[in-house]
Design a protein that fits this description.
The chain is α/β, with parallel strands linked by helices. The termini are close together. Helix 2 crosses helix 5. The protein has two domains: 114 residues, P-loop containing nucleotide triphosphate hydrolases (Rossmann fold, 3-Layer(aba) Sandwich), CATH 3.40.50.300; 77 residues, Rossmann fold (3-Layer(aba) Sandwich), CATH 3.40.50. The longest helix has 29 residues. 54% of the residues lie in helices and 13% in strands. Strands 2-3-1-4-5 form a five-stranded parallel beta sheet, sandwiched between helices.
Length: 198
């Protein structure tokens, strides 16, 4: 089983790429965001630590962590955000490690994909066999974020400023999939890469 990390800036089209791969290849896909939600469920590794750190007011009436309330509590505090990340990221890594073991142990899957915006910063380079950078130019990404997510120019600029530069992504990633043109072109690049491994 080949383990491939999928990363790239916001609006580059990672979701679209993974939807295509999932529909065509014998693979398992792990999304770091979903893993983060799982480890924050009541009874899971992060739940109690987050409630202790941020207080009962982040809880929904059903006792689960209300992500909107949690975001409001953290908003504007770099220190608090850092503390939350220091709690959540190691648990997400551990969850992903166990899933890799489980899926690999079953021996039925050709590829396992891990998608995370922070794959490089999160130190996943040692976890995966190779990293793929899903690339689209800034103009294309801005247009997508306005069109599909209704983001303002100001919000887009704020997000882009916090993300790795194109040079950084390219430096760490073995494969670059250019997703700035037609989907057919993107799919062709993916097929060429994955069919070469089968």
């Amino acid at each position: 089983m080949k383990i491939i990390g999928i990363t790239g800036g916001i609006g580059a089209g990672k979701t679209e790429v993974l939807a295509y791969i999932k529909g065509k290849y014998n693979c398992h896909i792990l999304l770091a965001d979903e893993a983060a939600h799982k480890v924050q469920e009541p009874g899971e590794s992060c739940y109690r630590a987050l409630v202790e750190l941020l207080g009962q007011e982040i809880l929904a009436p059903d006792g689960k962590i209300d992500r909107k309330k949690m975001a409001e509590k953290i908003f504007g505090s770099e220190a608090l955000l850092q503390q939350v990340n220091d709690l959540v990221h190691p648990m997400v890594r551990e969850y992903i490690r166990k899933e890799i073991e489980r899926v690999g142990g079953e021996g039925k899957t050709d590829f396992l994909f891990i998608e995370a915006a922070l794959l490089i910063e999160g130190g996943y380079e040692n976890t995966v066999d190779e990293l793929w950078y899903i690339y689209a130019g800034e103009e294309v990404r801005r247009r997508r974020l306005k069109c599909f997510r209704n983001y303002s120019d100001e919000k887009i600029s704020r997000i882009l400023e916090r993300q790795l530069s194109e040079e950084e992504f390219r430096k760490h990633c073995k494969v670059v999939i250019d997703n700035g043109g037609s989907l057919a072109d993107t799919y062709e690049q993916i097929d060429k890469k994955l069919e070469g491994y089968l």
